[in-house]
């Protein structure tokens, strides 16, 4: 038996702010999106390279304030890419942790923390 990669669900509340943060700032692509009908909550899949995330406005799917670690092959290049993109609510920097990893932490507009790290193999 083999398990596949996990796909985190992250709570979102505002479609425009979600797109500005994940697409414009972090560089993710919207793979698909779903609403049961116009005016109902959005559920969408985003990806960048091998990282896949699901963002949901449905209150029963998950709660805000999640934290996840995302492997980055070249954390310095990723940090430089974010610096070029600029987001008014984010000023991330690489931090060397006491256990030896190099992490870059950003918090999305809905309180979810994304920790990009060189600690996990890509």
Summarize the structure in words:
The protein has helices spanning 15-25, 75-85, and strands at residues 9-11, 29-34, 43-48, 51-56, 67-71, 94-96, 102-107, 113-117. By secondary structure, the protein is an alpha/beta fold. A hairpin with an 8-residue loop joins strand 2 and strand 3. The longest helix is centred in the N-terminal third of the chain and has 11 residues, at 15-25.
Number of strands: 8
Taking the alpha carbons of the first and last residues, their distance comes to 22 Å
How do the helices and strands follow one another from N- to C-terminus? EHEEEEHEEE
Secondary structural class: alpha/beta
Shape: globular
Q: How many structural units, i.e. domains?
A: 1
Strand order of the largest sheet: 1-4-3-2
CATH class: Alpha Beta
Q: Quote the CATH topology.
A: 2,3-Dihydroxybiphenyl 1,2-Dioxygenase, domain 1
Under the CATH scheme, the architecture is Roll
What is the CATH H-level superfamily?
A: 2,3-Dihydroxybiphenyl 1,2-Dioxygenase, domain 1
- For the report, how would you describe the main beta sheet? 4 strands, mixed
Low-confidence stretches: none
The radius of gyration is 15 Å
Q: Give the strand content.
A: 25-35%
Q: Approximately how much helix is present in the residues?
A: 10-25%
Number of discrete helical segments: 2
Average pLDDT confidence is 93
Q: Tell me the quaternary state.
A: single chain
